[in-house]
Every structure is written in structure tokens, then in C-alpha cells.
Design goal:
The chain has 257 residues and is of the alpha+beta class. It has two domains: 146 residues, S-adenosyl-l-methionine hydroxide adenosyltransferase, N-terminal (Rossmann fold, 3-Layer(aba) Sandwich); 88 residues, Beta Barrel (Elongation Factor Tu (Ef-tu), domain 3), CATH 2.40.30.90. It has five helices and 15 strands. Strands 2-1-3-5-4-6-7 form a seven-stranded mixed beta sheet, with helices on both faces. Strands 9-10-14-13-12-11-15 form a seven-stranded mixed barrel. Helix 1 packs parallel to helix 4 and helix 2 packs parallel to helix 3. The relative contact order is 0.13. Belongs to the SAM hydrolase / SAM-dependent halogenase family. Pfam families: SAM_HAT_C, SAM_HAT_N. This is SAM-dependent chlorinase/fluorinase. Keywords: S-adenosyl-L-methionine.
Length: 257
């Protein structure tokens, strides 16, 4: 198809660490040997579906249309949770039906989802659907397979990051992701004030991390489009003791100071 990659591209995201992704890659390459395999991340915090969903959403849109995104963060592996394929905006997604794929699919366009039928699970190890179900499904999709051929259409499990609330005294927001630098990503797409405080500390409003002084906390709009609390040369996670799921109040600073 015009405008699509000449060789199939499959991205991979999981909470598997360093060993198990190789088995998924082997399952793909044994079926489609010329695939370009790109790792998004395999260090998603174990079983943290929301963190995996954010990482997938942040990365997927930078790939060309026609890319297949294989994502597995799957606390329900071996249960009756569905496996699904999702088509949206020229991208294809495959993984468990636990909301992991949905923010990325919605950011790409209008998602349509299909169940991966029971026949696809025959002979699969009950603890490794990533290798035995989702990787082969990704190979089928990358080979031009019709996502509707996997099974009936379904309404997939949803997941969203909610929305920050702008109040008179500040912004009530939720931590949705903490990266490897300790930068804290919030579910706010705006920073409406120049002076913001958190837990009694002023956050410098900055365009880049280096605009703040050494070890100075700051707030910026990250490359992913969400507000991000950081510390120049340090860790906002450690400074403020924050973790995904925490709710915080960014207090509006006194502009007269």
C-alpha cells in the first residue's frame, strides 16, 4: 500500500524484563523473517497496565502507518480475559483486553476491535500468551492479515488517565507515569500559571530541564504533551515521594512574590 513501509514493522512493549521478549521475537521471526522489530520498552513496572498504556501511547504515534504494535502487560494471563486486535488510524495493535492498547489506539484515530478467537489459544502455554498467542497474531497482521479474521468484533475494555481539575487554589492532578529519571508525568495537558507550588516547594516553570538550577524542582510540558514535574540533575519521584496513581494538588503560587 502506498505510503506504508516496504518491510513490516512490529513494535514490542512489555513488563517482561530482558529474557522473555527474545522468545516473542523468535515467534515472530519464525513466521515473518523480514520483519523490523523495534523495542519500545520491556521495563514497564510489573503488571502496571496504566504505565504500559502511557508508554505505548507516547511512542506509537511516531511510527508510520501500517505498523503493528504488540504490547503485553497482562496481570490476567491464563484467565478468561480476552485477547484482542485493534485497528485505528492505519495502525494495528495486539495484546490483552485490559485497557493497555486503548489510549494509544484512541490517539491514532477511531478504534475498532476484534476478539482473538479460541482456536488461536490452542496449545498455548497458559502463562505466556505474549509468545504463543499475541506474537503469532502480530506476525499475521504484519503479513497483511485482516484484523476482522481473528474473531467477532468486541467493545474493548477501556482505560483513560482521567483529567486534571483546575480549581481556584490550583490544579488537582494524578500521577500517571514515572520515567527512569524520576520525572513525574501528570494527567494535565496544561500549566495555566507561571507560579506553581507542590508540597510547599516552588516549581520553576521551565521550557527545558536545564533552565532550572542544579537540584531545583521544575514543571514543564513534556514531549508527550503532559505536564511533567522534574528536578534538574535529580529525581522528582524521590524528592516528593510520588508514585503512579498518587493524587496531588499543584498550588497556585502568589504572583505578587
Amino acid at each position: 500500500m502506498s505510503g506504508y513501509p516496504k518491510r513490516p514493522i512490529i513494535t514490542l512493549l512489555s513488563d517482561f524484563g530482558s529474557l522473555y521478549p527474545a522468545e516473542m521475537k523468535g515467534a515472530i521471526l519464525s513466521r515473518i523473517g523480514d520483519a523490523i522489530l523495534v523495542d519500545i520498552a520491556h521495563d514497564v513496572p510489573p503488571q502496571d497496565v496504566r504505565a504500559g498504556a502511557f508508554a505505548l501511547m507516547a511512542a506509537a504515534g511516531h511510527f508510520p502507518k501500517g505498523t503493528v504494535h504488540l504490547a503485553v502487560v497482562d496481570p490476567g494471563v491464563g484467565t478468561d480475559r480476552l485477547g484482542i486486535v485493534v485497528a485505528s488510524g492505519g495502525h494495528l495493535f495486539v495484546g490483552p483486553d485490559n485497557g493497555l492498547l486503548i489510549p494509544a489506539a484512541k490517539s491514532a484515530g477511531e478504534p475498532a476491535a476484534w476478539m482473538i478467537g479460541p482456536s488461536f489459544f490452542e496449545g498455548a502455554a497458559p502463562t505466556f500468551a505474549g509468545r504463543d498467542v499475541f506474537a503469532p497474531a502480530a506476525a499475521v497482521l504484519a503479513s497483511g492479515g485482516d484484523p476482522g479474521s481473528f474473531g467477532p468484533a468486541v467493545d474493548p475494555a477501556g482505560l483513560d488517565f482521567g483529567r486534571a481539575r483546575i480549581l481556584d487554589e490550583g490544579i488537582e492532578a494524578e500521577v500517571i507515569y514515572v520515567d527512569g529519571f524520576g520525572n513525574v508525568v501528570l494527567n494535565s495537558a496544561a500549566i495555566p500559571w507561571d507560579r506553581v507550588e507542590l508540597m510547599g516547594r516552588r516549581l520553576r516553570r521551565a521550557r527545558t530541564y536545564a533552565e532550572a538550577g542544579a537540584d531545583e524542582p521544575l514543571i514543564t510540558l513534556g514531549s508527550h504533551g503532559f505536564a511533567e514535574i522534574a528536578v534538574n540533575g535529580g529525581s522528582a519521584k524521590d524528592l516528593f515521594g510520588l508514585a503512579p496513581g498518587d493524587r496531588i494538588l499543584l498550588e497556585r503560587g502568589d504572583c505578587s512574590e
